[in-house]
Amino acid sequence: MKYATTVIIGAGQAGLAMSRQLSNRSIDHVLIERGEVANSWRTERWDSLRLLTPNWQSRLPDYRYAGDDRDGYMTANEVASYLDGYADFCGAPVETHTRVLSVRPDGCGYRVATTKDDWRCVNVVMAAGACRIPTRPRCAEGMPKGILQLSPLDYKRPEQLPSGGVLVVGGGATGVQLAREIQLSGRQVTLSVGEHLRAPRIYRGKDIELWSDLAGLLDERYDEVDDINRARRTPSPQLIGGPTHNAVDISALKALGVEVVGRFAGIHDGRVRFSGGLANFCTLADLKMNRMLDAIDEWITEASLDGDVPAPQRFASTHVPEAPRLEADLTRGAINSVIWATGYRPDYSWLQVPVLDRRGRLRHDGGVVEAAGLYVMGLPFMRRRKSLQIDGVGVDARDLADHMAARLHRAAA
Length: 413
Description:
The chain has 413 residues and is of the alpha/beta class. Helix content is 27%, strand content 20%.
């Protein structure tokens, strides 16, 4: 049996940021990682993936991007190398190739069983990531035999798909990026879109992430939002990283030949059905985008920068087909593969502490779980709107490390 005051599960950006914050407070700890540092970036990303955020925004506690391409977007392998460098910089105490088998209460703390050793600790930080298990509707089991079904964790490149059409389900950043890449490979893509966030890559001459950062939009706190549960379910914006700053909104995809249909509504007897609400979803996305641009324009004016950047602009409304089709027959060979870009959920199968609600969601208040000494990192809008970004985990880790240090101080007193 080994002992550490704190066990951190996961050595990606969230776990490493927490490690640094704990080191800065002289709280001893260990990180348990199922593979290498940044394992998911190495093994669970498609080949062409790039960050949605510019390189300058990859800020971690006491560590910044120091390369020559501040306005570029790192590939998955570059992110893994970046996090490797951060782990070395921090001297992070990582136990690699070690899987957590269970976490259970043990006296005044917890016992963490792993494939190598058992650990006793006062605190556990769950930083294994929000994107561990791909989600898909139950009716996906009704897909006809012979239809290849993949999640974004399985997909690597268009060449692994069979010939014929591809149905991509999901209109977030992942769905639109994969739809674009597969369409450009020569396969006909049908994209099923529900609620989504439209955003321009460049606005008033700058990356939209720069304006969002400067205007404080990404710093909005979880306790400042009327409906935080809904906010946490909001899809990621329709953006793609790359030197050409391509648009990947619905209008841009339609111009490439992608067929856009409504939200996936079910499947019966080999026929996929789509909702008729595509126009409503697109109108709402346009409205939300313009509200965001209004907030940015207001900040630019207050900062007296109007004379230094191009004038405000508004983008054409999303071009929606007059009558998008409401179903597709999967038994005739026109569509031979489906990619479910319908989100993810964390994996808590090893957690033997009663802190999950009836839907399997973790009960927490900004990362402080409803069990003393138990914390979570890296969930959507956990403490701030940017909690899922590399730039967001550092400040979230600072807050939770402060909470942990205060708790330990009270216990010692």
